[in-house]
Each structure stands twice: as C-alpha cells, then as structure tokens.
Fold each of these.
Amino acid sequence: MADVLDRLVGQDAAVAQMRHHVRRPVHAYLLVGPVGVDLHEAALAMAAALQCPTHGCGTCATCRRVLDEAEADVSVVERAGVTWRVEELREAERVARRRPLGSGYQVVVVEDVELSTTGGVATAATLLKSLEEPPERTIFLLTARDLPAALDTLVSRCVVVRFRALRPAALVAALVAEGADADAAAFAAGAANGDLRRARVLVRDPALAERLAGWRGLPERLTSQLSGVMGLVDEIERGLDAAMAPLVAWQADEAERRRAEDRVPGARATGRREQEASDRREQRRFRLEEIAWGLRLLSEVYRTRLVEAVGDTPGPRASERARASLRALELVAEAHRRLGTSLDEVLLLSDLLVSLAAA
Ligand SMILES: [Zn+2]
C-alpha cells in the first residue's frame, strides 16, 4: 500500500532521498521546487515519515495527526505578511528549542524561506544559530521556490531535496487514476501548471472553460477609460472568487471526513484552529496560482500576436504591432514577478490593465 511519501506523485528522486533520510535524519532539510510543486504537502509527508513508527505508513494515528496538522510535535510556523519578519522567525527558534512531547522529534516547518530576504538582508540569518546548533531531537523542514544568493549560508546548513514541476501527462494520469474523465483531466491539467492538488480542484470546476475564455478575451476588451478598466478588474475578481468555491467545498469535505473518523486519542483541541489557518493559507496560494495562470494565458495571446506581426508584410504597421506585442509581454512578465510579493491584487491587476491599454 502506498505510504505518505508515495503520495508525492512524479517526484521519484526526491522521494528516494527523503525515504533514505527519514530513518536517520540530520537536523535540517530544505525542500526546493518551482511554483506548482506542492511543497507544503511534501513537508507534511516528510514530517509524518519522521514521526511515524513505521516511517510514514499514512494510516496510523501519528501519520493522520501530522497530515491533518494536528500533531503537537510538528509546527508549521505562521507569518502574517508576504515576507518573513524577524520576530516570526524568532518564534520558529522558540518552538525549535521545545522538547518533543512524544517519543519522536520536534519538527519545525518554515515555508517559503526565500521570502526572508529583504533588500539583500537575510532575515533568515535569525535561524542560522538554531540550524548550526539545534537541540538534539529538533528537525527543521524548510521550503523554498528558489535559492537566492543571500540564502547561501542557510542552504549550506541543510540537506537540499529538489522537486521538479510535474509534466501535464503525469497530472492527467493521476487524475484519471482517481476516477476523473479523461477529457476533463486533460483540460484541468493544462491549467494546473504542474500542481496536482490544483488540478484536483480544477477538475471539479464547471466554470474553468469560462474563466479561460475570459482571460484570453481580455486584450480585445481593454480600454483607456479608467472606469472600463475597473469594470474588467471587477470581473476578474468575481472570477477569482468563483474559482475558490470548489476548493472551499473540498476543504469542507475533508473537514467532514476528519470529524467522521474516530477521533484519535490524544488529538489536540487546537487541531481545528490550526486546520483553519492551513486552509486559509491554501486558499491564498490557490488564488495566487489562479492569477498566475491568467497571466500565462495573457502571455500566450500576446505571443501569438507577435508571431503574426512578424510574419506579416513588412512595413510600419507590422513593426508597430510587433513592438506593442513585445511591450505587452514585458508588462505581463513584470506583473508575474510582482505577484508573489504584492499585497494588493486589485492594484496589481489594474496597474497591468492600464499599462496594457496604453502599450
Ligand atoms: Zn504512520
């Protein structure tokens, strides 16, 4: 039967490395993978494999508590803003110094550590001392999308486990194996950017095709009128809200399943609150992914325009169209870069649409 690590579909190399390490762990791991790879799921799976008496069976009380984020000796450290603040990382250090309540480890999960560098100053340096001289039974599980140079020292203190983006074919195979219709699976996989959990939500979403058409049709509807732009942004926001519905419904199903299961002896009363925080984090990630998908669709439209302009009869009109398409592609790429660190998606989208209308 598949254990917790087997559930990380399409990550054979990373899984083999983790499987080796959970039996004789070192004190810090850094899980690295591109946007789309569910590093949160990977960190929890590794935490379960570390705590479980049989290294991650997936079915025992310990595994279930860890995966449901209700295990006292596995802490996912919270941050309030987009980037990490020093005080928040000090909280991670404080948790790391606690002795585990059970017979396993004190596992401290800190996600997105690349967001701990501001202006070249690595806030993550706060963690260095703990990583150098950790308490005996403490294990850090850090995650990052990429590894900026400012994190070099931190990286050198960890065993790095690399994950790769899943190819659409792997997503389709996983969805079909779970009972999805092949066409719906292919459509959802195309919009999921290598992210299996996102694909699982999208395959249940009847409005996916409509949102795809909405993003693709956006360039045709741009206007220099600010009120027109705000109308388009409103429409996108409503689409994003609607896109969240299948995820929220799924989270509710999972909560129901957890309630229906026999409550595990020793389950913490705080489990529910932690689960809600985890659900909210997932909703935030899903929303960002949805916007990133929209931006990729916009890029496709402008790339097609560029190719058409280049293939056109040479002349001032063709070169003007090529220039405008290139400019639009740059603007979309810039919005994509800002996405991870922008607090205000409405501002980001309206900035983008205003600049695209002028391009
Ligand atoms: Zn287990």
Note: The two ends are 56 Å apart (CA to CA).
Amino acid sequence: MEADIIHRFHTALPQVRDWIDQLVDAHADRARVVSTLGFSRLLDCFPREVLDRAKVVSINRVPFPPVKKIGLPELAAMEERSLDGITFRDTFFLQEGLASEGVYFHELVHVVQWTRLGLENFLLAYGLGLVSFEYAQSPLERMAYELQKNFERDTLPRDLVRVIEEGTDDIWNQAAPTVLGSKVPPNPQR
Ligand SMILES: [Zn+2]
C-alpha cells in the first residue's frame, strides 16, 4: 500500500468527520429509532440496547462522503454508485422503499462495527478495504454480507454481537499496521 494514500486518509479524516456530523444533524428530525419499527427478528438477533440507539433515515439518494473533493479520487466510484444503505456511527441511511429486514440487519452489523472501532479507526479500516478490494469484498462489508446471508437463511451464530466484535477486531488488527504505520500498537483494546 502506498504511503501516499494512507497519508491522504489521515488528512481527510477531520473533513469526513465534519461531513458525517452535518449529515446526521441535518436528518436528526427524520431519524427513527430501529427498536420502534416492529422488526421482531431483529429483536431476536441484537441486544435491545443496540436497537434502541440505532436510527434509520429513509432517503431518496444514499449519501457518500465527497471523497473526490477531499483528495481521495481512488474512492470516487463509490460516490457514483447507488448504494442500498450506508451507516455512520449509530445512524443508517436507506434507499427509500427498501424496508426488508435483511437490509436493516446488514446496517446493524455496521452499527456494531462502528461502536467497536470508533469513528477514526472505522473510517481508516473501511477506506483501506475499499482501495484493497472490490466493494462487496472489502472486509467490513464482506462480514456484513455474510452475516446478512446467515440472517436470511436463519443460520446466524448464537452470540452475534460477540462474533461481529471479534471479526471487527481481526479486521482492525490486519489493517492497523498499514493505516497507522509502526508507531501505534495494532490493537483497539476496548
Ligand atoms: Zn454494508
């Protein structure tokens, strides 16, 4: 991995953070708490605490950070792409009309990943995944898609949150030497 793009990831972080804060703020009045939406299977899968803080915004175009403008043209294809959904911290944005429980489940996997990594580490690991793999094969996405498949086939692991957290730690431990260089030990320890 070129040091140059990792450097640009770090430079972009504050701008992406501001963009996320503004986006979430701007839609706060339309965000609905997931536990109130009557998806009974989600209640079987995730602890109540996760569903009480996770929020969904239905939107006519799923937003993506303005990566081209902030110096990450390698990710520009993601801006053009029409996504079903995207998660920022506890809030996910879903394409209007997409109400399948499986899609909600997928984004809730991302909510748990975000909680585990925090904003900076999530964005660094996610960004590295996107420049290293095709979108659906990027590690944090691959986990969400695989678990979504298990959800739809009713073959989920018993201790779902723990499985997500451990998988997320593994992804981070893989990413950290590249995204942090050798200065910081590669373990979130949360
Ligand atoms: Zn996803």
Note: The chain has one domain: 3-180.
